[in-house]
Structures are given as structure tokens and as C-alpha cells.
């Protein structure tokens, strides 16, 4: 099997899906290119700030991507290239991209409220609180885990540390130039990307070596600042500029595969059960995660992206298109793993999934003159930059979830007309919410975050199922077509609940009752949310909305 053919066929399918299926969804969900967005209606200069489509796509893509579409497909390659590829393609087109697009549309229609707010309006306050509690705990886990990943990367690759720190003032200068000096976006982008390359070069020349403890402290301060500062001064421009690293990496990988012409060496299908990864069903769908569908994306789409959308017409390219770009990256990651022999794959995997990906991509890029060492260093730097991007976005989303949990319940009419907090309670304050959220995350990062980490994959995919449920209830209340979400929602609930069952069974045998309790909590949460939403989905308890 040719790696070129695998890549080209899947990329063409993604393009066709964007044009036809994405266009059909936009019509079904009433996308209005001229519709007023929450960013304009509730502009506050902090969270609600309209951004041009290329800038917002950069923020959204950088936030949802991270290392997820790389780690997942590389690890899942043990099941064979065919099931991995099929799930990435089918999952993206019919589940992941509609999930992201639908979450963004639902948030727009609810004046920038998060998925938790959407659930409150369409299902009820109790369901909202359950969702917010779960999503906040998941985000705390994400922050703790990614803080460790970034800190470890900075310790092992101090060049990445220097470059990442230099990106921060660059992003702030870019944001100031665009939003306070009305600098042309194209010229500012060209200058910004050039300085970005300079930052990478300076990082190689002046690596900053600190201990992991020191990096965790520095990162905690940075995350708190990133979650509080206006999006236009740091989060948005940083993600936008960083997205060019990922675009360059994808383009380089695409050209490299075309010119290097790798042949797939791994079998199409290996075995239904793998000694370390478990059963193909459900673990394939849990392991690949962000490469096909991810609940974290719904939090990004409804948490930060919906509050920055300049034109409603941009929702399709950002929501549906952004996920397809991530699918393209997942396919590249798959090829870097499956062109290897089984022994070669196992050897490289000892250094982690990113090592497999960066080595493979660097090898492909030698076909057009890039030195293998340079290519691998650049790829590793790009991946580490995106891990940090996911980290600061997760911090802001955690702050949002914490604030919403402590806000007073709002009626449907208020939720439809106003997205501002309904109370000024102590815990709904953004500074308090940020400190508590990041503080607990960093505490876990220093102590026992690894204990809960095995549950992250299932928790993330359960979040996707619940987000699909939330969007489906909104459409049901509006009398709009939601059938395209029902099958993906049911499938993801089956996958998640089956995976949780396996995890509980294995951890009971190991005596790890903390994980068993956490898995049981997620299981019960899913069942309760399904029960609470059933009447809405079946039309037996349809809420009238303004």
C-alpha cells in the first residue's frame, strides 16, 4: 500500500466533505452569514472580542490540536493502518467535525454561553451543574497533565523553552499592533511569522535550562495570566502565530510524503486485542481521540471561539473545517507510524509517540533537502508549542466552567438575550475562579495527577457524547433536524461506557479503588444526563424558546 495514495485519498475525502456535508449541515442548522454574533453583541474587550476568520481559525485550530492528533494515531497504529485510517476519516467527517461545528452553532444561538449553558436552557439547571462539574474536573486534569508534559519537554529540550517564552512578548506586540494600532493583518502576519522564526533560531542558540519544579511554577503563573488577560493581547495572537508552525509542519509533511513515497509496512489489521492497548473496540476510538472526535473541542468552540466570531458565516470554516485540518494531521501521524516495520515502530515508540512522528516527518522532509536533524528539531519544537497552547486555552476554559457553576440559574429568556454573569458572587469572580482552578491543577501536577490520567481518554470521549447530546436537545427544542447527531451520540456513549466498564474491571483486580470510583462517577453521570435529556429528544418535554 502506498503512503501517497493513502494520504491523497483521505485528503480529497476531507475536501469533498467540507464542501458538501459541511454545506448541508450549515443549511440544516440555519447558518446566517449576516447574523449578528455574540462577539459584537456583548463586546467587553476581555472575552467577547471579534476576530477576523484567519486569526480565529488559528486560535481555534491551535487550541484543539495540541499533541492529541499525533499521540493518538501513533499509539493506535498497533491495531493496523486500516482501522486507524477508517476511524479518522469516518469519525472526522460524520462525528468530530459536526460535533465541533454544532457546538459552535449552539453557543452562537445562546449568545456565547458554553455547552453547560446550552444544557441549562434546553434540559435544566441540574443537568447543567452535572456537566459543568464534570467538564471542570476534566479540565483540571488536562491542565495538570499538560503542565507536566510541557515542563518535561522544556527540561529535555531547553531550546523549546527559550522559543516558547519569546513567543509570549511577540504575541502581545502582535495583538497590540492589530487591535490598538489597526495595523494591516497581512503585513503584521508576515512580520510576526518572520520574528517567530527568529525566536526559534534564538532558542537553539540560547537554550534555557531550569528544573521541572521551576518550570511548573513559571507555567502556573503564565496560565493564570493567560486565563485573565483580554484574549486579544495574548491568547488569540499567540495561537494565531503558532498556527503557522503547524501549517508549515503539515505542508512539509505533505510534500515529504509525496516526494519520499513511503510504502506502508504494517499489516492492514493486526489483532482484535493488543497486550498493552487492549481490545480494538472500544480502545481504538478512545486512543485516537482528537484525531477523530474530542469532547475538549466542544469546550473550545463554545468557550472561547464563539465569543470571538466576527461573522456567523465564519462558523463553517472554523468549526467544521478546523476539525478536518486536524484530521489531515492525524493521517500524517498515522503514516509516520505505519510505514515502519513492527520492530522499527516499537524501537522509536520507546521515546514516545512524538518521537515516532518527528522522526518520520523529518525522514520524509529529507526528500526536498531538509536535514534530518533540523527537521526533527523543528517538528518537536512545533509540537511542544502546541502543547503549551492547549494548556493556556484549557486554563481559560476551566475558569469559565468554574464561574458558570457558581452563577445563579438564568431563565431561557435571559439566557437568550444576555450572556453576562447573573451574579457577582465571590466564586464567580474571574480572578478567584482562575486562581482556584489553576491552583488545584498545579497541585495535582506536583503530586498525584498520574493516578487519574488513565481515565482521561474515556472522560474526554464521554464529554464528546454529552456535547452531541446538548446540541441535539437544542435542535429538538427548535424543531430542527438533529438526526445527523443522534447516531454519533449513541455510538460515542456506547464506546465510552464500554471503555469505562473495562477500566473498572481491570482496576478492581489491581485494587486501585480511586480509579474505580472515578470511572463509576463518570458512568453514572452519563446515565443521568441521558435520562434527563430523553424527554427533550423525544419531544415529550419540548421547551419553548424565544
UniProtKB/TrEMBL annotation:
Q: Which GO terms describe its biological process?
A: cellular response to starvation
Which parts pass through the membrane?
Answer: 6-26, 74-95, 130-151, 160-179, 185-206, 213-234, 240-259, 279-297, 317-340, 431-452, 458-477, 484-503, 515-537
Chief localisation class: membrane
A single Gene Ontology CC annotation of this entry is:
plasma membrane
The entry's localization annotation reads: Cell membrane
Pfam families cross-referenced by the UniProt entry = CstA
What sequence ranges are listed for the domain CstA N-terminal? 3-348, 350-499
* Keywords attached to this entry: Cell membrane, Membrane, Transmembrane, Transmembrane helix
Specify the protein's topology with respect to the membrane: Multi-pass membrane protein
Question: Which PANTHER family does the entry link to?
Answer: INNER MEMBRANE PEPTIDE TRANSPORTER, PEPTIDE TRANSPORTER CSTA
Tell me its family: Belongs to the peptide transporter carbon starvation (CstA) (TC 2.A.114) family.
> What's this protein's name?
Carbon starvation protein, predicted membrane protein
Organism whose genome encodes this protein: Acetomicrobium mobile (strain ATCC BAA-54 / DSM 13181 / JCM 12221 / NGA)
Amino acid at each position: 500500500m502506498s503512503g501517497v495514495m493513502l494520504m491523497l485519498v483521505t485528503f480529497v475525502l476531507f475536501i469533498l466533505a467540507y464542501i458538501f456535508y459541511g454545506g448541508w449541515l450549515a443549511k440544516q442548522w440555519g447558518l446566517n452569514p449576516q447574523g449578528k454574533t455574540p462577539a459584537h453583541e456583548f463586546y467587553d474587550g476581555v472575552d467577547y472580542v471579534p476576530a477576523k476568520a484567519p486569526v480565529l481559525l488559528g486560535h481555534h485550530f491551535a487550541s484543539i490540536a495540541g499533541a492529541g492528533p499525533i499521540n493518538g494515531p501513533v499509539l493506535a497504529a498497533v491495531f493496523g493502518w486500516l482501522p486507524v485510517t477508517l476511524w479518522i476519516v469516518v469519525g472526522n467527517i460524520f462525528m468530530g467535525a459536526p460535533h465541533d461545528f454544532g457546538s459552535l452553532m449552539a453557543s452562537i444561538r445562546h449568545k456565547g454561553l458554553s455547552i453547560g449553558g446550552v444544557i441549562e436552557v434546553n434540559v435544566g439547571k441540574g443537568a447543567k451543574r452535572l456537566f459543568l462539574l464534570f467538564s471542570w474536573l476534566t479540565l483540571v486534569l488536562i491542565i495538570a497533565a499538560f503542565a507536566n508534559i510541557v515542563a518535561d519537554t522544556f527540561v529535555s529540550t531547553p531550546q523549546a523553552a527559550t522559543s516558547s517564552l519569546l513567543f509570549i512578548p511577540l504575541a502581545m506586540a502582535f495583538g497590540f499592533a492589530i487591535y490598538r494600532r489597526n495595523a494591516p493583518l497581512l503585513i503584521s502576519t508576515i512580520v510576526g511569522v518572520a520574528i517567530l522564526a527568529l525566536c526559534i533560531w534564538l532558542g537553539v542558540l540560547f537554550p534555557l535550562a531550569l528544573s521541572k519544579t521551576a518550570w511548573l511554577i513559571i507555567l502556573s503563573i503564565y496560565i493564570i495570566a493567560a486565563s485573565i488577560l483580554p484574549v486579544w493581547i495574548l491568547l488569540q495572537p499567540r495561537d494565531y502565530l503558532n498556527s503557522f508552525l503547524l501549517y508549515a509542519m503539515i505542508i512539509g509533511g505533505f510534500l515529504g510524503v509525496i516526494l519520499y513515497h513511503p510504502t506502508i509496512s504494517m499489516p492492514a489489521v493486526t489483532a482484535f486485542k493488543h497486550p498493552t492497548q487492549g481490545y480494538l473496540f472500544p480502545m481504538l476510538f478512545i486512543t485516537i481521540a482528537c484525531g477523530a472526535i474530542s469532547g475538549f473541542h466542544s469546550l473550545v468552540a463554545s468557550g472561547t471561539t464563539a465569543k470571538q466570531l466576527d461573522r456567523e458565516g465564519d462558523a463553517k470554516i472554523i468549526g467544521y473545517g478546523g476539525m478536518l485540518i486536524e484530521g489531515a494531521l492525524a493521517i500524517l501521524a498515522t503514516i509516520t507510524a505505519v510505514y515502519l516495520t513492527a520492530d522499527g515502530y516499537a524501537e522509536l515508540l520507546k521515546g514516545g509517540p512524538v518521537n515516532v512522528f518527528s522522526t518520520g516527518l523529518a525522514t520524509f522532509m529529507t526528500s526536498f533537502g531538509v536535514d534530518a536533524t533540523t527537521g526533527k528539531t523543528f517538528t518537536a519544537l512545533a509540537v511542544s508549542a502546541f502543547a503549551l497552547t492547549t494548556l493556556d486555552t484549557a486554563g481559560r476554559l476551566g475558569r469559565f466552567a468554574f464561574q458558570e457553576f457558581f452563577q445563579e440559574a438564568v431563565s431561557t429568556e435571559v439566557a437568550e438575550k444576555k450572556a453576562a454573569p447573573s451574579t457577582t458572587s465571590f466564586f464567580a469572580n474571574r480572578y478567584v475562579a482562575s486562581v482556584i482552578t489553576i491552583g488545584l491543577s498545579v497541585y495535582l501536577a506536583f503530586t498525584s495527577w498520574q493516578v487519574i490520567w488513565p481515565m482521561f481518554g474515556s472522560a474526554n470521549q464521554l464529554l464528546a457524547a454529552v456535547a452531541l447530546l446538548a446540541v441535539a436537545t437544542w435542535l429538538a427544542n427548535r424543531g430542527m433536524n438533529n438526526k445527523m447527531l443522534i447516531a454519533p451520540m449513541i455510538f460515542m456513549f456506547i464506546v465510552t461506557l464500554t471503555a469505562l466498564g473495562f477500566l473498572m474491571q481491570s482496576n478492581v483486580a489491581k485494587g486501585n479503588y480511586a480509579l474505580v470510583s472515578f470511572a463509576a462517577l463518570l458512568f453514572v453521570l452519563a446515565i443521568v444526563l441521558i435520562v434527563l435529556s430523553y424527554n427533550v429528544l423525544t419531544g415529550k418535554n419540548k421547551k419553548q424558546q424565544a
